[in-house]
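DM between two lab members

TW: hey, do you still have the ATP/GTP-binding protein entry open?
JB: yeah, one sec
JB: this one, 108 aa:
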Amino acid sequence: MSPRRNRPRGPQQPARRSGEDEGHRYGLESTETWRGEEWVVRRISGGAAVKHYRCPGCDQEIPPGVPHVVSWPQAGAVDDRRHWHRACWEARDRRGVRPQRSRNAPRY
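TW: and the structure you got?
JB:
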């Protein structure tokens, strides 16, 4: 039996410098048009999602570790950022405005 090989077989990758992998950690930004306005959209991976957020599309919580989308108007400020589930962001045009009510409230 031959001994186990501990050396990597492929070409070696250079060591990363600090701040170099931020594009991979936070996702790539793109620009989309929605309701006549330019929006910056950033897709967040599950590993980079570390806080709880509230999705404006379904009003449900986005727990840490769940991949999601962050969007804000291109002309907006940092406070205008919103965290969406990916499915809610894709369905934002098909959803109507839903009134917020408690579970026991009548539907009329």
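TW: got it. Helices lie at 22-26, 86-90. Residues 23-90 form one domain.
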